[in-house]
């Protein structure tokens, strides 16, 4: 090895001056900035003074010079003394940011884990042992560090006839263009003799590099076989067209326990916990940007399959480029019991794993597993999502628990996570130990939730799809995943008191209710009988509530669960606060838009449409629901009617009063919730609303209330659109003067986020509205899908790109 190495050094010593001239051309040409951009685009995202770079085979110092000029510190290595001397000369005063070293690229004198970046150009092809070199380069990289190698299939023409013909054609093109021939101006015969002695001249690259770097332990290996188009001058392209330069990059992984993982990568395998006693299937996904670690687990109860299948699918679907921070997906926590088809009670020690946290290292099997999960997984997390479902004897309605015994800010963060889950109910836990998620929140201050979907030891496609969306929505909400939240059918109602009724005897269970059913205090829920049919125990509700889950197998055991139900808390809907805050920020621009609209052709068109449906009498009592800045209120008041406008947003009402004064209209305005209008029954002749119902958390209840305050024979005119299916952030097809162009992108995205937490956004409208009106007892109604075409006859500042509909309904006399 040393004999060939000395021969290579001797050759490159003769090339020092010529190679340096080539570098000077690069520094004076476009290549300098092109190379700098390529290199720095791969560097870690941290201050340049903190990035330590190693350039291997530096030659006359091209890379160190351009990087030192840009403010980076570089260690530069070469085996040829003459090259190092020339590099120092070329660097001049920049040597203050460069350290030059004479070293063999195949045996570096640096400590392990020293550099953030290792770069090299046109070196590996003339090494006797390039695989050894790659292992050395990886060794000196820090975890998370990146290797960048630029090289080509140099001297492949010595082995391939077609490549030789292409090489000879390059020589002719260079001669015809009167350029310096980068081959013939050197001792080509001597270089070819060396090339025949090194292995890479006859090996196809970069395929070999990818395989070798993977074996050396790098992840995220990428190649760019067209990088030469970016960094070469025209002279270089003509010289080397038959041998295009490639770039190969890779990342030295960090480890999550025993699994290697690199930024921007996904690793699948098995995590070893408890000194190797427990080996659990897992996927680690690390984003390019730093962030929090989110732990998602399933299979804590071995017979609850929905969560397990959910994580199997999420591990494939979640994309590293959308992750911020790190996702740790452990598909089956209680793997051994899962593979033995056991249920929630371990076959070995008879314990329920979700009752023994934090566990004990010297305890039973489940206690040791709980201790290992606590120490190796929960301790490392910043958020925790635990996926459950009905065991082989349980039937349930989908719901979510959130940690309730922890610091107030942890409880609130846990609740926010629970609110992203598309289920009817959420339960605030009142215990701090036993369960994994409870213990995570109370002891390690980690926001945590537990999702329940599926039942009876089965999994259905619909439940898995729903739970997958639930997890993704939580990840999006906490900033761990860059995506748009899915639409929700439900917004979970909180339960503050949950009763877990257990059997006092062994026996046969005969329920009369189903999960999701409403129950009332003292209501009969079922009974336990013996084999002769004799009643052993009667189960009754001891409070009003909703059934969350119950045993649906025939047998129950003494002390074991029978039925669980909870009491719904009617508390302030925080979505309304968020909605009001959003429209407060929009209120000033709304005032200007409605002011202009009142004096546009649209005002007359709107009034003409409304008159088609108004009762034929004067001085109607009209309620404008969600009046905004008072557009309809003012129009109708000017027609001689008594009009009241209500809106949830105080700033909208303030602006409505301003506009009314300007227009000298006689109407009144009140801050009021459209879902709870504070008026007596049968107060109004007409209710009118525009672009409101799509913003309501409970539009069905709003419709009920509107008809409550309508007089018999009164009418409702609701104008809205299927905005849930529209993307407000897409303004490409709108005219330049359109109002949406004046709204900040942040506000448009906020609107999209709000929409996806409103169940009405997931329904097809107006079909849903008509079905809802029928369900609440309205018998006379109609709809009009052509209203937009008659109102928005031109694309101007008022144009609505989403087709509107009009619903007319009449209250029975």
UniProtKB/TrEMBL annotation:
Its EC number is 2.1.1.197. InterPro entries: AstE_AspA_cat, Methyltransf_11, SAM-dependent_MTases_sf. The keyword Transferase applies. It comes from the Bacteria. Gene3D superfamilies: Vaccinia Virus protein VP39 (3.40.50.150), Zn peptidases (3.40.630.10). It is an enzyme of class 2 (transferase). The keyword Zinc applies. It holds the Pfam family AstE_AspA_cat. This is Malonyl-[acyl-carrier protein] O-methyltransferase.
């Amino acid at each position: 090895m040393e004999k060939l190495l000395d021969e290579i050094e001797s050759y490159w010593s003769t090339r020092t001056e010529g190679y340096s001239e080539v570098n000077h051309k690069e520094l004076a040409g476009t290549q300098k900035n092109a190379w700098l951009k390529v290199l720095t685009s791969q560097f870690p995202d941290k201050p340049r003074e903190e990035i330590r770079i190693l350039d291997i085979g530096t030659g006359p110092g091209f890379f160190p010079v351009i990087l030192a000029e840009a403010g980076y510190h570089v260690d530069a290595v070469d085996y040829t003394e003459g090259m190092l001397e020339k590099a120092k000369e070329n660097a001049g005063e920049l040597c203050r940011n460069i350290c030059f070293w004479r070293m063999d690229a195949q045996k570096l004198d640096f400590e392990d884990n020293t550099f953030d970046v290792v770069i090299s150009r046109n070196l590996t092809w003339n090494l006797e042992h390039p695989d050894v070199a790659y292992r050395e380069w990886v060794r000196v990289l820090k975890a998370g560090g990146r290797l960048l190698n630029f090289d080509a299939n140099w001297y492949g023409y010595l082995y391939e006839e077609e490549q030789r013909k292409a090489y000879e054609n390059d020589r002719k093109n260079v001669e015809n263009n009167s350029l310096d021939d980068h081959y013939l101006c050197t001792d080509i015969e001597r270089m070819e003799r060396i090339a025949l002695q090194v292995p890479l001249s006859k090996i196809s690259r970069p395929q070999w590099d990818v395989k070798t770097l993977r074996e050396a332990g790098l992840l995220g290996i990428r190649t760019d076989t067209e990088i030469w188009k970016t960094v070469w001058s025209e002279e270089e392209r003509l010289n080397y067209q038959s041998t295009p330069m490639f770039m190969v990059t890779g990342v030295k992984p960090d480890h999550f326990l025993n699994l290697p993982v690199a930024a921007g990568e996904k690793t699948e395998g098995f995590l070893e916990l408890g000194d190797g006693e427990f080996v659990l299937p897992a996927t680690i996904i690390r984003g390019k940007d730093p962030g929090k670690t989110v732990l998602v687990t399933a299979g804590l109860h071995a017979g609850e399959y929905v969560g397990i299948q959910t994580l199997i699918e999420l591990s494939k679907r979640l994309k590293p480029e959308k992750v911020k921070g790190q996702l740790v997906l452990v598909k089956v926590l209680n793997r051994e019991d899962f593979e033995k088809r056991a249920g929630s009670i371990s076959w070995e020690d008879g314990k329920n794993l979700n009752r023994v946290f934090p566990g004990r290292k010297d305890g039973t099997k489940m206690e040791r597993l709980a201790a290992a999960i606590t120490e190796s997984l929960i301790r490392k997390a910043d958020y925790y999502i635990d996926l459950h479902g009905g065991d082989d004897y349980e039937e349930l309605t989908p719901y979510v628990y959130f940690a309730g015994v922890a610091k107030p800010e942890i409880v609130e963060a846990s609740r926010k996570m629970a609110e992203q889950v598309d289920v009817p109910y959420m339960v605030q836990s009142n215990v701090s130990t036993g369960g994994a998620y409870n213990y995570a929140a109370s002891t390690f201050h980690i926001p945590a939730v537990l999702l329940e979907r599926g039942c009876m030891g089965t999994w259905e496609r619909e439940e898995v799809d729903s739970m997958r969306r639930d997890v993704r929505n939580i990840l999006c909400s906490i900033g761990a995943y860059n995506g748009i939240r899915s639409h929700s059918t439900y917004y979970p109602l909180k339960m503050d008191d949950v009763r877990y009724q257990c059997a006092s005897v062994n026996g046969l269970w005969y329920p009369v209710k189903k999960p999701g059913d409403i129950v009332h205090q003292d209501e009969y829920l079922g009974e336990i009988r013996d084999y002769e049919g004799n009643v052993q125990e009667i189960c009754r509700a001891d409070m009003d509530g909703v059934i969350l889950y119950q045993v649906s197998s025939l047998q129950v055991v003494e002390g074991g669960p029978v039925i669980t139900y909870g009491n719904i808390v009617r508390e302030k809907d925080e979505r309304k606060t968020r909605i009001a805050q959003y429209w407060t920020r929009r209120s000033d621009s709304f005032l200007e838009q409605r002011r202009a609209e009142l004096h546009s052709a649209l005002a007359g068109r709107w009034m003409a449409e409304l008159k088609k449906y108004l009762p034929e009498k004067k001085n109607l009592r009209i309620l404008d629901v969600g009046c905004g800045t008072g557009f309809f209120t003012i129009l109708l008041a000017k027609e001689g009617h008594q009009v009241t406008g209500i809106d949830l947003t105080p700033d909208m009402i303030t602006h409505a009063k301003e506009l009314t004064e300007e227009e000298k209209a006689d109407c009144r305005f009140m801050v009021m919730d459209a879902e709870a209008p504070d008026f007596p029954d049968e107060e109004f002749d007409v209710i009118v609303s525009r672009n409101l119902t799509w913003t309501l958390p409970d539009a069905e209840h709003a419709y009920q209330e509107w008809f409550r305050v309508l007089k018999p024979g009164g009418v409702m005119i609701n104008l809205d659109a299927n905005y849930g299916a529209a993307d407000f952030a897409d303004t490409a097809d709108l005219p330049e003067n359109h109002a949406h162009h004046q709204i900040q992108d942040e506000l448009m995205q906020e609107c999209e986020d709000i929409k996806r937490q409103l169940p009405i956004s997931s329904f097809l409208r107006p079909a849903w509205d008509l079905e809802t009106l029928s369900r609440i007892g309205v018998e006379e109604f109609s709809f009009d899908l052509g209203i937009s075409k008659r109102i928005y006859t031109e694309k101007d500042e008022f144009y609505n790109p989403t087709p509107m509909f009009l619903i007319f309904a009449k209250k029975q006399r």
